[in-house]
Structures are given as structure tokens and as C-alpha cells.
Specification:
The complex is a heterodimer. Chain A is an alpha+beta fold. Chain A has helices at 6-22, 24-30, 40-58, 63-76, 80-96, 105-121, 131-149, 154-175, 177-182, 187-203, 213-222, 237-242, 245-253, 277-285, 312-316, 331-339, 356-365, 381-390, 404-413, 420-433, 473-484, 502-515, and strands at residues 3-5, 102-104, 227-235, 256-264, 267-274, 288-297, 320-328, 344-347, 368-374, 395-398, 435-441, 446-448, 451-453, 458-462, 465-470, 491-496, 519-524, 530-536. Chain A has a 6-stranded mixed β-sheet with strand order 15-14-11-18-16-17, sandwiched between helices. Chain A has a 4-stranded antiparallel β-sheet with strand order 4-5-3-6. In chain B, α1 packs across α2. The longest helix of chain B has 20 residues, at 82-101.
């Protein structure tokens, strides 16, 4: 192939996107610089996916438009350092190919080079040994090679680019000591190599496809098939007795996905994607009469606005005095927060920080005069604060909770009968009162503050500090609990994560009951990352 | 103001200038930040990039009950997502300072004084 047009560029970008999404966890594991919070892969992947989504939305297959729209999508959706840098690289790329319908190898090489240059311009003192180094070295090398050897094939160029990018990535520990200490290569650079590999795989004729179920679901959002089916159902008298939300949901899950199911009095709103819209309507009709039905083909053009928005049912709800928005990952924890009167639980947590926009839309969903936001993670407080600032007309208070137990305690101490100030004071007191412990495992060998940690070891985090490591999960948990308890301890809340078994939880519970005179409250949180979260009051 | 710490052997005092240089060094490495600016906006409202020697003009360190508060005045590059750049800068400054000063940092407040447009 000597030239590429907009369609090829678009498909190439998609292949890169899939490769990045498939491997984001590996990239997360490499993240030690500038702050070791293990979110580079997720950040890059979300940034990149936003770019792809914009390309799909535009529907254009003209090269300059695809490049421009993609770069704008990256810019608007940029998350984290790596996301911002990625947006600059493609901004340079797009600038270089503006006003062209197809580009040859030389132009492609020049565009990559321009991307690298522009990325460097946005920082005063670039740190070498990062994604910047990788993009510069590989783009320079490949461009010079293309010029001197007269290479015309894009495939050959991409081969060179990938090879040099990989070599440059392998050199990053030599340039950045913190990488060497942790025995990793740079995470952002590794993300870029992953994207380029995706490009190359596409040019070789075997584009990368999304892998696991989770990723398929994410891809389904950008490239959906089937019918978007939605209706408002008026429950009949017998129907309202028969109707159970859980039952309805589980029967709908068998025939489709992306299900939204809301009940409001005798009105039920349903929206979902399915291959069998007739079946969905049959399910609904068992309970009553339809108010409004809409079925649209997802593969035929852009989505139509939902009939559910602005429906009479939505306006009928009365404004409440108080609303609570919180953040959690894991079905169990989400349910737990809902049980404790949280109105909206934004999905997120460690390694998966929700954006300001997520909070803004959560705030819009809560129909209340005073809203409390519990971010439950120090990295998320900022986004919550920003959301509070940009939202007008509502009284929003962000309580700086930095952990799940703090959030839970704050929810529990919330009293709808009291006024805002005394609630704030009460919740703050509850937050100050609870101590947080978390047990997680090391994904690689590393050295933190002089403490050697081996891959697979369990780490006990007390507050923010790593207070102990232990090869055994239960042992680590018990030791951590011992450290956290003192004579004033009254309640221990133990939240089981997705990778802990009920047997392990029982062992820990038994340990607590045998050694301390306290109440134990065991919950199934199902959260990722942390095997156990412990709250001590 | 200075950052002080008592040990068994005596006192450690880190001057405000030293903290400013440290913060300046960290912030100029942050992606999307083109430099530091003075906290006083000049007469015609034009934020000038500070030279290395003058970094303390763009850094204010205060002590509160919960640790240090740091105000930072910076200039960012045109065409980046400013909210994200500023947030990453906060994260990095907090991380590096807590590590190198062993002091709790309560907050890092970023003031974007200007946007640098590259010709």
C-alpha cells in the first residue's frame, strides 16, 4: 500500500483503539511515573476511545476530517498526563494532513514527526524516558529511513516505526531512574507502542478486535447492532402487583443489553438494545398498556433522541430536600450505598477516576435542593469539586471522603430530618471517626520507600501507607486489622472484594471475633482491586 | 515562610526559596506547563514567564493545621486540556513534595495566569 485515505485511517485508528483497550491492564501495571497510581492504561484508553467515538459520530470518511475530528475528540476527552500528550501528538498529525484527501508514506512520516514536535512544545522541560521520547525517537528514525532509502510502502514504514518505538521503549529505564528502580518500562510509552502495533496489525491485514466481554460491551457502544427499543408502560391493576423490577430485568437481560429500567409509581420506562424487539414488547405487555413505543435500527445511522427524556413521568417527580451522590466500584458496594439512601452511585474508584462530566450528569439526575457528594477517593475529590462549581442553581456540598468506609459512615450518619449544616457537621464527624484499611495484591515486583514488594504479595494499606506485606491474603488482612484496632474500637466493617471468597471472609471474621470484643459487620462489596476493605470505628 | 522539622538531633529548616525552586523544578517538568508566572499580574495584565532565579515569585507556601498549602502560578501551553494539565500538576507536586519534604501537603492550588500560544 502506497497511499492511505480517510477510510483506511479510520479503520487503522480503530484497530489501535482495540489493541489499547485489550491491553490497558498491562499498561496500568507499569505506571510508576510521574505518580504511581496505576491508571495510565485506563486513562489512555478512555481518551482514545473518546476520539474514536467522535469519529463515528461525524460519520465522515474524508482523511483530513477524520484526523481533525479524532484529534478534537482526544483533546476534549483527555484524561491524565498520557491522555493529554496523546491528544497533542494527534493534534500535530491532524495539522499536518489538513486539506488532503490521501497521503503517501512520506506525508505520513512527516505528519508523525509533526505530532512528536508539537507534543514537545507543550512542556518547558520535557522529561526523557517517557512517551515523548518514544514518539520522537521512532518518528525521527522512521522518517530519516524513509527519506534515505526511498521507501514507498506504508506497511514498511509502519514496520520501521513500530520496531524503533519498541526499541526506544526498552531504553526508557536507562533514561528515567524511577523506572529502573521499579524494573518497568514507561507506561505511557508502552501505550503508544500498543497503539502503533494496532495500526501495523491493521495494515498487515489482521486488524485487532476487542477481546473480553467487557471490552465487547464497550465496543458495542460505538458500533451497535440490533434495535434500540424503548417504551413507557402503564402498569395495569393486576400488572402492578405482578411487576417486580428484578424479575423484569433478569428476563430482559436474556434478550438484550444496555438495559435502562426505571419505575415511577405505575409507570415503567424501559430502554435497551436487542436483536428481538418483539420479544421485549411481549415482556412488557404482560404488565399493562403501552404509553409510547419506539424501535429504531442501531446500524442505520445516528441514534434518535430518546423518547424517555422529558417524558411526563420525569416531570412528575417532586424535588426532594436532600440528595446524595457517591462513587463506588463493584455491584455489592453500589447496592450498599443505595441501601444507605445514596441517590446516584457513580461508577469509579482506584485506577478508574470518574470525570467532572460524570459528576455533572449525576447531579442533573438528582432532583434535590441540597446535594452531598462523597467522592470516596482522594483522586476524585477534585473532579467532584469542579462539578460543584460548574453546576448552577443547586446547593452542592462535597465532603472530602477518601475511602469507601468514610463514605459509608457519612451516608449512615445522614439524617433527612436535619438541616444542611448539622448534616454536614454530623457527616464530617463520622468521617473523622472511621479508620480505613485496604488489602490488595502487588501486580509486580517493586520497591516502595525502600520496602521490597514481590509480585503476588498482599499489601495491607492503613490510610495511605503500606503498613505490611504478606504472601497470604487472610494473614495480611488479620495483621492489618490488629494494627488498626485499639481499646476504643467498637465496630469493624469488613467488605469482601471480588477476588476474595466467602471462606476467606469467614476466617477473617472468626479471627476478629476471637481476638477483639467488637461488633463485626460483613458485607459483600464485589469491588475490584481490593480483596478486603476494612472500616474501624 | 520556611518549612521546619524537628528531629532528635536538632532542627531542619528549608527556606521558602528552596521550596520555590523545588516546586518550580517539578512544575516545569509537568506536561502542558510552559512555565511559572508571577503571582502579581503585571500592569497590563500580561503574565510573564519567570526565570529560574525568580521562581519564588510564583510560589506561595503557607502552613495550616493540616499541613502545607501551596499556591502556584503557572502558564500553560495552547491547545491542551487545561483542567487535566492542572490536575496532573497538582498530583505531581503533592507527590514529589510529600516524598522529598516528608510533610503533609494539605492542598496545591493552581492559578493559570496565562496560555502560551506557539506561533
Amino acid at each position: 500500500m502506497d497511499k492511505i485515505n480517510g477510510k483506511i485511517l479510520k479503520e487503522m485508528l480503530e484497530s489501535g483503539c482495540n489493541n489499547l483497550q485489550n491491553r490497558q491492564n498491562e499498561i496500568n501495571a507499569l505506571n510508576v511515573f510521574p505518580v504511581p497510581d496505576g491508571d495510565t492504561g485506563t486513562n489512555m484508553s478512555l481518551t482514545y476511545a473518546n476520539g474514536i467515538a467522535e469519529v463515528h459520530k461525524s460519520g465522515s470518511e474524508q482523511l483530513s476530517v477524520v484526523a481533525k475530528v479524532f484529534s478534537r475528540g482526544l483533546l476534549m476527552g483527555a484524561r491524565g498526563n498520557s491522555g493529554v500528550i496523546l491528544s497533542q501528538i494527534f493534534r500535530g498529525f491532524a495539522q499536518s494532513v489538513a486539506d488532503t484527501d490521501q497521503i503517501d508514506t512520506k506525508q505520513f512520516a512527516a505528519a508523525m514527526m509533526n505530532g512528536a514536535k508539537l507534543a514537545y512544545k507543550a512542556v518547558m522541560r520535557p522529561v526523557e524516558g517517557t512517551i515523548l521520547t518514544v514518539v520522537r525517537e521512532s518518528a525521527e528514525y522512521a522518517e530519516i529511513y524513509v527519506g534515505s532509502q526511498g521507501i514507498n510502502s506504508i506497511n514498511d514504514y509502519m514496520d520501521l516505526l513500530c520496531k524503533e518505538a519498541k526499541a526506544s521503549l526498552d531504553r526508557t529505564p536507562e533514561l528515567l531512574p524511577v523506572l529502573k528502580e521499579a524494573r518497568v518500562v514507561d507506561s505511557g510509552g508502552s501505550g503508544l507502542v500498543t497503539i502503533l502495533d494496532g495500526f501495523r496489525a491493521y495494515l498487515m491485514g489482521s486488524p485487532i478486535l476487542p477481546e473480553s466481554e467487557e471490552e465487547r460491551a464497550a465496543a458495542a457502544k460505538t458500533k451497535a447492532v440490533g434495535y434500540c427499543t424503548e417504551f413507557i408502560l402503564h402498569l395495569s391493576e393486576t400488572g402492578s402487583h405482578l411487576y417486580k423490577e428484578e424479575k423484569m430485568r433478569s428476563s430482559l437481560e436474556k434478550i438484550g443489553e444496555n438495559i435502562t429500567l426505571i419505575q415511577d409509581g405505575d409507570l415503567v420506562k424501559v430502554r435497551m438494545n436487542t436483536l428481538m424487539p418483539g420479544e421485549v414488547l411481549n415482556q412488557g405487555q404482560r404488565y399493562g398498556e403501552f404509553d409510547d413505543v419506539s424501535v429504531s435500527n442501531l446500524s442505520a445511522g445516528p441514534e434518535k433522541p430518546s423518547i424517555l427524556e422529558g417524558s411526563p413521568a420525569a416531570e412528575k417527580q417532586e424535588e426532594k430536600e436532600f440528595g446524595i451522590i457517591t462513587v463506588a466500584a463493584g455491584d455489592g458496594l453500589r447496592q450498599l450505598f443505595k441501601d444507605y439512601r445514596a441517590d446516584v452511585v457513580v461508577s469509579g474508584g482506584q485506577t478508574m477516576n470518574p470525570s467532572t462530566e460524570d459528576f455533572v450528569s449525576a447531579i442533573a439526575k438528582v432532583n434535590a435542593r441540597h446535594i452531598f457528594i462523597l467522592p470516596n477517593n482522594s483522586n476524585i475529590i477534585m473532579a467532584a469539586n469542579q462539578a460543584a462549581q460548574v453546576t448552577e442553581g443547586k446547593d452542592i456540598h462535597v465532603l472530602p471522603t477518601t475511602s469507601i468506609p468514610q463514605g459509608l459512615c457519612a451516608c449512615i450518619s445522614f439524617n433527612p430530618e436535619e438541616d444542611t449544616d448539622s448534616n454536614l457537621a454530623g457527616m464530617q464527624e463520622a468521617i473523622d471517626h472511621v479508620k480505613t484499611g485496604q488489602v490488595t495484591y502487588a501486580i509486580k515486583d517493586t520497591v516502595v520507600d525502600g520496602r521490597e514488594i514481590h509480585q503476588g504479595d498482599y499489601m495491607g494499606l492503613y490510610g495511605k501507607e503500606i503498613s505490611l506485606t504478606d504472601p497470604d491474603k487472610v494473614e495480611a488482612t488479620c495483621r492489618l486489622i490488629k494494627e488498626m484496632c485499639d481499646e476504643d474500637t467498637e465496630i469493624i466493617t469488613l467488605i469482601q472484594g471480588s477476588d476474595a471468597t466467602p471462606e476467606e471472609t469467614q476466617k477473617v471474621q472468626k479471627y476478629i471475633e476471637e481476638n477483639f470484643e467488637v461488633d463485626v459487620d460483613v458485607k459483600d462489596g464485589g469491588q475490584p482491586v481490593y480483596s478486603f476493605i476494612i472500616g474501624v470505628e | 515562610m520556611t518549612v521546619e522539622k524537628k528531629t532528635d538531633y536538632g532542627n531542619i529548616t528549608v527556606s521558602a526559596d528552596a521550596v520555590a525552586s523545588l516546586v518550580g523544578g517539578v512544575i516545569t517538568e509537568c506536561y502542558g506547563v510552559v512555565g511559572m508566572a508571577s503571582k502579581q499580574v503585571l500592569r497590563d495584565g500580561w503574565a510573564e514567564l519567570l526565570k529560574k532565579e525568580n521562581y519564588q515569585k510564583g510560589v506561595v507556601v503557607k502552613r495550616t493545621d493540616n499541613g502545607l498549602t501551596i499556591d502556584l502560578y503557572i502558564v500553560v501551553s495552547f491547545g491542551v486540556k487545561i483542567s487535566e494539565v492542572a490536575q496532573e500538576a497538582q498530583k505531581k507536586v503533592k507527590y514529589v513534595l510529600e516524598k522529598s519534604l516528608s510533610q503533609e501537603i494539605e492542598s496545591v492550588n493552581i492559578f493559570v495566569q496565562g496560555v502560551h500560544v506557539i506561533a
